[in-house]
Design goal:
The protein has 428 residues and is mainly alpha-helical. The chain contains 15 helices and four strands. Helix 2 packs antiparallel against helix 8, helix 6 packs antiparallel against helix 7 and helix 9 packs antiparallel against helix 10. It starts with a helix and ends in a 7-residue tail after the last helix.
Length: 428
């Protein structure tokens, strides 16, 4: 009898362990703390890819500057384009993480008054009531004034760009750092309006032996400094998402419900106010190529697609890196499915529909016409392609709002946009 009792207890214990092992994965998938932890892992993976591709771009830029040629400039441009994709997918971590929001303007601020940095076409104009540094042309002027004070720009360094020139004079239009400043330095102005063609800066703008537009040595200093600074800024953000880093710690120190709210705030705000509104609908309403995000390189169709992909990544709790490696774990999708499977299916379908419309826009951008042409006045077909993507973003935001309610993540205020909420205001 004793031996039988021991066997019975052992069998019961084994059964309990087996049941526990079956239940644990489901519990982990729907544990809000695990969802938030995986979100931080996605952020680390995304920013790490952004850093790796920025470093590759920096190498390509250094090689080009060491021996300027058209081939070298083309290689640097391709490296910039490659670096944009992973960074854009990290934008879904904005709008709810203060560490990211306080930093983001250093790397992706736009639009910029490019006359602050370098020579511009006469059509750009010579002055702006809103920006005294509209045509400061730092590359051509080693000394200039900011708010009446003399500035020594004889040597252009990352520190000078970050501490003196970025948002100089308190103007947000004075963007001196980040992806778009580098984009301008590689492509130059796009003077084609809503016609075909991107910026066409010649490589000889950097060739001191055959210099065009003068100051080729200072132009090279600026490009090298801006590229180095972007790498340093991305290194900082990668560190912020490492274990013990400021961004990850802020989430860990808050309760899991707050972390879920942060995730949904980023998804909804990027989807609606930022992407559908400020980056897309505004330019479409005005038919203004100056309102496109990557306006010098005509890469806007790709940037918008990867923004949308980043939103879906956060919901699904999954990210595919530039090397094909997959980071995957507990997700908002699993949380929602536990409470309302139909809503989860709806949210997934809306995210997929947005990607489908963005892919259609991106394919048009590659094969037919650039984004600035799509939003041009009188281009009904192009306008419709952009509007379809905007409509999909708005539609998925309505589902994000239902998810917020289902998860009881109240108190969230998503970013809005006059171009969507009060379009008449933008014409006043």
């Amino acid at each position: 009898m004793k031996r039988r009792t021991e066997f019975t207890l052992t069998l019961a214990t084994a059964t309990a362990i087996t049941l526990a092992s079956l239940l644990l994965p489901a519990r982990a998938e729907t544990d809000p703390a695990a969802v938030v932890n995986n979100y931080a892992n996605l952020a680390l993976a995304g920013y790490s890819d952004a850093l790796a591709t920025a470093r590759a771009m920096d190498v390509a830029i250094d090689a080009f500057l060491a021996s300027p040629s058209q081939e070298g400039l083309d290689a640097a441009r391709q490296a910039w384009l490659a670096a944009r994709n992973p960074y854009q997918e990290t934008e879904a971590f904005r709008f709810g993480n203060p560490v990211v929001d306080d930093w983001e303007g250093r790397v992706n601020a736009w639009p910029l008054d490019e006359g602050l940095i370098d020579y511009v076409d006469a059509s750009y104009g010579t002055e702006s009531d809103e920006n005294p540094l509209y045509t400061a042309n730092v590359i051509a002027n080693p000394k200039f004034e900011i708010n009446g004070e003399q500035v020594d720009a004889s040597t252009i360094t990352p520190q000078f760009l970050a501490e003196t020139l970025q948002e100089a004079g308190g103007s947000e239009a004075n963007v001196a750092t980040g992806y778009h400043a580098i984009e301008f330095m590689l492509w130059g102005q796009d003077l084609n309006g809503t016609g075909p063609g991107a910026g066409a800066r010649p490589f000889t703008d950097y060739d001191t032996a055959n210099c065009t537009k003068g100051h080729c040595d200072r132009r090279a200093q600026y490009l090298a400094a801006a590229s180095d600074l972007l790498v340093a800024d991305l290194e900082e953000m990668v560190a912020n998402w490492q274990p013990g880093g400021a961004a990850r710690k802020a989430l860990e120190d808050a309760d899991a419900k707050t972390g879920v709210a942060v995730m949904l705030t980023g998804m909804g705000s990027l989807s609606y106010g930022e992407l559908a509104g400020e980056r897309m609908k505004l330019g479409l309403l005005l038919h203004d190529p100056e309102e496109e995000h990557d306006c010098f390189s005509d890469n806007t169709h790709n940037s918008h697609l990867h923004d949308a992909a980043g939103i879906r990544n956060v919901y699904l709790g999954e990210y595919t890196g530039t090397d094909g490696a997959v980071v995957k774990g507990a997700s908002l999708s699993a949380l929602v499915a536990e409470k309302d499977p139909a809503l989860d299916a709806e949210m997934r379908a809306k995210l997929d529909a947005t990607i489908e419309k963005m892919n259609a826009m991106a394919e048009r951008g590659k094969t037919i016409e650039a984004y600035d042409q799509m939003i041009g006045e009188g281009n009904d077909e192009g306008n419709a392609v952009v509007q379809a993507a905007i409509d999909a973003l708005i539609d998925q935001t309505r589902s994000i709002e239902r998810v917020i309610a289902a998860l009881d993540a109240g108190g969230i205020e998503l970013e809005g946009s006059d171009s969507l909420d009060n379009p008449d205001a933008i014409f006043q």
